[in-house]
C-alpha cells in the first residue's frame, strides 16, 4: 500500500489542474503549431491544430498524477501555460 500512496494523495486537485490547465496548454500548443507552420494549406493547418488538442490535453491529464502534490501540479502546469501563451504573445497572436 505504501508504494501507491503518493499517487493517490491530492487526486482531486491533480485532476482539476490537469483538466483546466491541460486544456489551456493544449490550446496554446495548437496556436503555436499554427504560427510555426505558415506554409501549410489552411485546411490542413486547421485540421492539425484541431486534432492536436485532444492528445496533448489527455496526455497532460494522465501525467498530472505523477506530480508529488496537487499544488506542484498547479504550479508546473501554470508555468507551462505562461510559457506557451507568452510564446504566442511574442509571436504576435492575440
Question: What characteristics describe this protein?
Answer:
single chain, 94 residues, mainly alpha, elongated
Tell me what the structure shows.
This protein has about 90 residues and is mainly alpha-helical. It has one domain (about 10-90). Helices cover about 80% and strands about 0% of the residues. Helix 2 (about 10-35) packs antiparallel against helix 3 (about 40-65) and helix 2 packs parallel to helix 4. The termini are far apart. The mean pLDDT is about 90.
Helix-strand blueprint:
Elements: H1 5-8, H2 11-36, H3 42-63, H4 70-91
Helix pairs in contact: 2-3, 2-4
Question: Which structural class do the helices and strands define?
Answer: mainly alpha
Total helical elements: 4
Helix content: over 70%
Our estimate of the beta-strand percent is under 5%
The coarse silhouette is elongated
Short note summarizing the structure:
The protein is mainly alpha-helical and 94 residues long. Helices cover 79% and strands 0% of the residues.
Amino acid at each position: 500500500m505504501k508504494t501507491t500512496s503518493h499517487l493517490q494523495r491530492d487526486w482531486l486537485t491533480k485532476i482539476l489542474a490537469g483538466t483546466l490547465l491541460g486544456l489551456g496548454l493544449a490550446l496554446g500548443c495548437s496556436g503555436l503549431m499554427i504560427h510555426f507552420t505558415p506554409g501549410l494549406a489552411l485546411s490542413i493547418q486547421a485540421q492539425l491544430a484541431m486534432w492536436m488538442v485532444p492528445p496533448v490535453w489527455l496526455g497532460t491529464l494522465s501525467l498530472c498524477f505523477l506530480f508529488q502534490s496537487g499544488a506542484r501540479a498547479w504550479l508546473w502546469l501554470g508555468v507551462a501555460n505562461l510559457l506557451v501563451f507568452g510564446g504566442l504573445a511574442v509571436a504576435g497572436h492575440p
